[in-house]
Amino acid sequence: MRPRRARRSMAEINVVPYIDVMLVLLVIFMVTAPMLQQGVEVKPPQAPAKALPQSNDVPIVVTVSKTGAYTVSGGTAPPMGEQPIEQIQAYVLAMRQANPKIPVLVKGDREANYQMVVNALVALQKADVDKVGLVTDQPAGRAAGGQ
């Protein structure tokens, strides 16, 4: 009888399939990422208002569409589509606790129901926001700041 030689187990991992999967996921994320950055398109009212001073902080923008849908963008999170005002209120409260100086803006569509804009302002007040900016467009042919 001959003594059997112990076979060595092969400890190599074939990484080629993993690379293929990773490249497919990369392409999927590259295609879907710009779609996540899109918010709701609104047309703010026109007013000859003075522009806010520049800030290094990215403002939190609560958007009210003409259908009454609420969205939020800015801060540390990308836009997440339509959300209930209670979720937006909780998000703004968390962002303001982390950075109390972060500016908060409300961007309402000019055709939106005024009550929906007021509801957004009340929710921001409950989130301990003491100053809120309202986003407007400049009238055609006028400089910022009015007369």
Explain what you see.
The structure is a single chain. The chain has 147 residues and is of the alpha/beta class. It has a domain of 64 residues. It is built from 3 helices and 4 strands, in the order αββαβαβ. The protein has a 4-stranded mixed β-sheet, with helices on one face. Helix 3 links the parallel strand 3 and strand 4. Helix 2 runs parallel beside helix 3. It is elongated, with a radius of gyration of 25 Å. The mean pLDDT is 80.
List keywords for this structure.
147 residues, alpha/beta, 4-stranded mixed sheet, 3 helices, 33% helix, 11% strand
Strand order of the largest sheet: 2-1-3-4
SSE run = HEEHEHE
- What structural category characterises the helix and strand content? alpha/beta
Mean pLDDT: 80
Helix proportion range: 25-40%
What distance separates the N and C termini?
107 Å
In short:
By secondary structure, this protein is an alpha/beta fold. It is built from three helices and four strands; from the N terminus they run αββαβαβ.
Could you outline the blueprint of secondary structure elements for this entry?
Blueprint: H1 16-36, E1 60-64, E2 70-73, H2 85-98, E3 104-108, H3 114-126, E4 133-134
Parallel strand pairs: 1-3, 3-4
Antiparallel strand pairs: 1-2
